[in-house]
Amino acid sequence: MDLREIRAFAEGDDARRIDPSATARTGAPHIRSFHEDRDDTLLLIADFRPPMLWGTGATLRSVRAARLAARRGWQAVARGASLAVISVTAHGIAVVPPGSGTPQMIRVSHMLASRHDQALHSGREASSLEEALIHAARLSPPGGEVILATGPEGLATGDEPALARLARRRRVRLLLPLDPLETSPPAWPLPIRAGALCRLARLAPFDRAALAQQLRALNVSLEVVDDDAC
User: Fold this and answer.
1) What's the CA dihedral at 199, 179, 211, 131 to 10 degrees?
2) Does 117 score more than 90 pLDDT?
3) How many helices (H) and strands (E) does the chain have?
4) Residues 104, 80 contacting (CB under 8 angstroms)
5) pTM of the complete model beyond 0.90
6) How far apart (Å, rounded) are the C-alpha atoms in residues 136 and 169?
7) What is the distance between the alpha carbons of residues 218 and 70, in angstroms, rounded to a whole number?
8) Residue 145: which of 84, 230, 226, 208 has the closest Cα?
């Protein structure tokens, strides 16, 4: 086999391919990657933070994100890919390390369901995605695919550097399950109340073009899902 590259060790790599010279030289584990290797790895990041826990249609946005992530996971294991998952709640992150096959997808499904249940009973404020994105860069090897399922407000300005670093040598896609209120808001003004204050506001459809342009600068693609049936 022809040597393709020597790269930093990522969680889930085969330890038998560690390169002793590069490891000794850098002080960090490095592995040999060959042209015959299949970089068919998928890392799913599911956002269950408070801004995702609402919906005006048949399901919460967080539920749709979990279903979409599970669907992509089943597609990955069906083609023999390696699959890992990170879930994000107000309490922090949880990880299912890389694995393959139906047993791995069962572990992923159980984790998504239990973490979502925990998120529904959390009263904390939303945390940043930065921790999940930094961990994703360690978990997903170069050449791998990363899918982040979150809402329009999921990315804060402080998350962009970590997202850009993640996307440097990986295919990163933001999966956006929009609520019907975000795609087809009522034409009439709606009352908005905050304590004793009340205002009338007319909602506008979500501007996906602006988000797509922002992500393009970070080398991240955007996939909008506005079908409430998922």
Assistant:
1) 100
2) yes
3) 7, 10
4) no
5) no
6) 12
7) 25
8) 84
Q: How many CB atoms lie within 10 A of CB 180?
A: 14
Please report, as a single letter, which amino acid is at residue 145: E
Residue 109 near residue 116, CB atoms below 8 Å: no
Q: Which residues contact 82 (CB under 8 A, 6 or more apart)?
A: 12, 40, 41, 42, 76, 98, 99, 100
Residues 152, 47 contacting (CB under 8 angstroms): no
Q: In 10 A of CB 211, how many CB atoms?
A: 16
How many C-beta atoms surround the C-beta of residue 117 within 10 A? 10
Q: What contacts 203, CB < 8 A, 6 or more positions away?
A: 181, 185, 186, 190
- Predicted confidence (pLDDT) per residue in 31-65, tens digit: 887 644 456 899 999 999 999 999 988 899 999 99
Whether residue 85 contacts residue 114, with contact meaning beta carbons closer than 8 Å, is answered with no
How confident is the model at residue 104, as a pLDDT? 94
Please list the residues that pair with 3 across neighbouring strands. 34
Asked if residues 40 and 82 have their Cβ atoms less than 8 Å apart, the reply is: yes
